[in-house]
């Protein structure tokens, strides 16, 4: 499996492109993550233009199966976070074939 870009590599690239220190770029990245978490928790939605959106969703209780025994089990209702990729990002990464 190929390794993705690490946080350190991302910070270095941002610092270089934006002509700022690694510390400033790291602080920006931490602030973005903190804001995304806080806003998603509070409002249920956080949009990063051109990349996508974090959405808080409620899953209903449902019946499932234990994969080892095959016995039915009840799965409780819970809150989950989903990331929905923006159309512009999808088209740039994997354009649709016509």
Verbal overview:
This protein has 98 residues and is an alpha+beta fold. The chain has two domains: 7-43; 45-98, IHF-like DNA-binding proteins (HU Protein, Chain A, Irregular). Helices cover 42% and strands 29% of the residues. It has three helices and five strands; from the N terminus they run H-H-E-E-E-E-E-H. The chain has helices at residues 7-18, 22-43, 87-93; strands at 45-48, 52-59, 62-65, 72-75, 78-85. The strands form two sheets. Strands 1-2-5 form a three-stranded antiparallel sheet. A two-stranded antiparallel sheet has the order 3-4. Strand 3 (62-65) and strand 4 (72-75) form a beta hairpin. The longest helix has 22 residues, at 22-43. It is elongated, with a radius of gyration of 19 Å. The two termini are 30 Å apart. The mean pLDDT is 93.
Could you give the count of β-strands? 5
Q: How does the overall form come out from the CA principal axes?
A: elongated
Write down the secondary-structure element order: HHEEEEEH
Give the helix level as a range of percent: 40-55%
The end-to-end distance, rounded to whole angstroms, is 30 Å
Read across the widest sheet, the strand sequence of neighbours is 1-2-5
Biggest β-sheet: count, sense, barrel?
A: 3 strands, antiparallel
CATH superfamily of the largest domain, by name, is IHF-like DNA-binding proteins
CATH architecture descriptor name of the largest domain:
Irregular
CATH topology of the largest domain: HU Protein, Chain A
The computed structural class is: alpha+beta
């Amino acid at each position: 499996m190929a390794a993705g870009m690490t946080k350190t590599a991302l910070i270095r690239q941002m610092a270089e492109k934006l002509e700022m220190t690694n510390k400033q770029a790291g602080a920006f990245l931490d602030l973005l993550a903190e804001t995304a978490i806080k806003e998603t928790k509070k409002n249920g939605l956080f949009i990063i233009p051109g990349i996508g959106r974090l959405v808080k969703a409620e899953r209903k209780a449902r019946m499932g199966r234990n994969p080892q025994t095959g016995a039915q089990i009840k799965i409780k209702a819970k809150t989950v976070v989903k990331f929905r990729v923006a159309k512009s990002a999808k088209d740039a990464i994997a354009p649709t074939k016509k």
